[in-house]
Amino acid sequence: MLLYYRLISSLAHLNCMRKLMVLVLFASHSSVLAKEGLLNSSYEEVASILGKPSSHDNGSVSGIRYDRYHFERRGWKAAVLFIDGKAQKLDTEKSDGSPLSVEDKKAIFEAYDLPNTGQDSKLRGWRQLSENHFIRGDGRVHIITHPTSMTIFWDDLPREFW
Fold it and tell me: CA 68, CA 59: separation in Å to the nearest integer?
């Protein structure tokens, strides 16, 4: 019986740690607006949260210059697309490539939702556009889910970057 309680306690602790890890990884930093998570942050703000990037590429699509930095931290990978010095898109997945749990997805959706304040309460939440494509209540942020990854981006991001 004691072994059973220890196992339940350990599983509960791991679940809490996983939620905390996702929130720490994607939630706001003091200089980053909570309602956008990492979106619209500068490279410096993103690097202060995710650490030093493991790689960097850049280029131009339809005449729009971009930089993409790849980060890996605490069992998660993230590729952050910057246009004009601001984060416009984030692709994330677990480092081991395993599927995202319901809790993982929920934590990411919550990190990019609007704050629960009086003025935003009617716009909170997500509307489903297709099987795996969601838009935030204010129409500003999209999330596309896949079994092993999620993509978060601004509504006005050119389609070539989706």
Answer: 9
Q: What distance in Å separates the CA atoms of residue 66 and residue 130, rounded to the nearest whole number?
A: 28
pLDDT digit string, tens, across residues 55-111: 999 999 999 999 999 999 999 999 999 999 999 999 999 999 999 999 999 999 999
Contacts of 140 (CB under 8 A, 6+ apart): 154, 155
**Cα within 13 Å of Cα(126), Cβ side:** 22
Q: What share of the chain is helix, strand, coil (3-state, %, to 5)?
A: 30, 35, 35
Query: Exposed, middle or buried: residue 114 (CB in 10 Å: 0-12, 13-18, 19+)?
Result: buried
* CA separation for the pair 13, 85 (Å, rounded): 38
Query: Is the pTM higher than 0.85?
Result: no
d(CA 139, CA 143): 11
